[in-house]
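Hi Y.,

Following your request, here is the sequence exactly as I used it, all 97 residues.
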Amino acid sequence: MRMIWKRLNQKNYVQNNREKVNARKNRWVKNNFEWVIWHQAKRRCRRTNQEFTIEPEDVIIPEYCPYLGVKITKILGEGKVPTNASIDRIDPSKGYI
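Below is the corresponding structure, written out as tokens. Let me know if you'd prefer a different format.
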């Protein structure tokens, strides 16, 4: 019974403090951007049954793109941003290896 009340309180808190909860979530994502894009890539591979051997420690985001020289961004909630960091597959048929 105690767990049910805890869940109801959490749900009420989230509903009543939507902006505060979203701001905290966005702050966490921005501070853990490497892990977030690693996790998204891992989910895509799991869904498509492709190989995935990358670890979160393997994801390093430089300040500037080594090929184009443009500043790499970590913009959230605006759809696809061309300058956002991403993980690329060398051979799309093999997944992330």
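The chain has a mean pLDDT of 86.

Thanks again,
Q.
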